[in-house]
Amino acid sequence: QQQVKQSPQSLIVQKGGISIINCAYENTAFDYFPWYQQFPGKGPALLIAIRPDVSEKKEGRFTISFNKSAKQFSLHIMDSQPGDSATYFCAACRSNYKLTFGKGTLLTVNP
Amino acid sequence: DGGITQSPKYLFRKEGQNVTLSCEQNLNHDAMYWYRQDPGQGLRLIYYSQIVNDFQKGDIAEGYSVSREKKESFPLTVTSAQKNPTAFYLCASSIVEEQYFGPGTRLTVL
């Protein structure tokens, strides 16, 4: 049973545009929602994370929007750059610290 | 320079052989994790350990074994019982929920 569903599988955006990746979860006990960025052949890097007590968190060009009632959260990348081209994973976690990952979104930003 | 190291970066194994993947961290994190990554499958948890000398199975533990004798080290053994071991293996450690990943080991079975 997949507990975190991520969409789209792949995304192509023009330089300067906004990239939006969505995730939905089922388990209402989840209380920590991170996003990871992974370049080919490398380990994932923690990008930004949010808890359910806030609806939005922004760090530079990256913003997480969180909708607790809909059990959805999304990553927005403003002013997307070719260097942002990577695979992005959402995840969710309960207090036991076990992360459940989405299947990933391959983002391509064209120059 | 703090971080997580995994070795080797590439590993080739013949069918029927056991191999051990190394993971070391100097972040003083209590918890450590092993994940397997296959194309289009995301990251799947193999084993995790929250304290020394204790570890739990994740979602896909069959054919794998681990040990946690030191806080800094969490080696993973891929045994001959693992039916399809070719994959990218990632080690992580965490302080509370924030997990940090190593650079990975790519295992190929010949």
Indicate the mean pLDDT of chain A.
94
List the total number of helices of chain B: 0
Q: What are the segments of chain B in which pLDDT stays under 50 over at least 5 consecutive residues? A: none
Strand content range of chain B? over 45%
**Global shape of chain A:** globular
Low-confidence regions of chain A: none
Between the first and last Cα atoms of chain B, what is the distance in angstroms? 36 Å
| Class per helix and strand makeup of chain A | mainly beta
Helix-strand sequence of chain B: EEEEEEEEEEE
Rg of chain B, nearest Å: 13 Å
Distance between the termini of chain A: 38 Å
Broad structural category of chain B: mainly beta
Total number of helices of chain A: 0
Helix content of chain A: under 10%
Secondary structure tally: strands of chain B? 11
Features of this protein?
heterodimer, A: 111 residues, mainly beta, 6-stranded mixed beta sheet, 5-stranded antiparallel beta sheet, 0% helix, globular, B: 110 residues, 4-stranded antiparallel beta sheet
Care to describe what's here?
The complex is a heterodimer of chains A (111) and B (110). With 111 residues, chain A is mainly beta. Helix content of chain A is 0%, strand content 55%. Chain A contains no helices and 11 strands. Chain A has strands at 4-7, 10-14, 19-25, 33-38, 45-50, 56-59, 62-67, 72-77, 86-93, 99-101, 105-110. In chain A, strands 2, 4, 5, 9, 10 and 11 form a 6-stranded mixed sheet that branches. A 5-stranded antiparallel sheet of chain A has the order 1-3-8-7-6, with no helix packed on it. In chain A, strand 6 (56-59) and strand 7 form a beta hairpin. Chain A is globular and about 40 Å long. The model of chain A has no long low-confidence stretch (mean pLDDT 94). By secondary structure, chain B is mostly beta strands. In chain B, 0% of the residues lie in helices and 54% in strands. Chain B is built from no helices and 11 strands. Chain B has strands at residues 4-7, 10-13, 19-25, 31-37, 43-51, 54-57, 64-66, 76-78, 87-95, 98-101, 105-109. In chain B, strands 2, 4, 5, 6, 9, 10 and 11 form a 7-stranded mixed sheet that branches. A 4-stranded antiparallel sheet of chain B has the order 1-3-8-7, with no helix packed on it. The interface between A and B is medium-sized, with 21 and 24 residues.
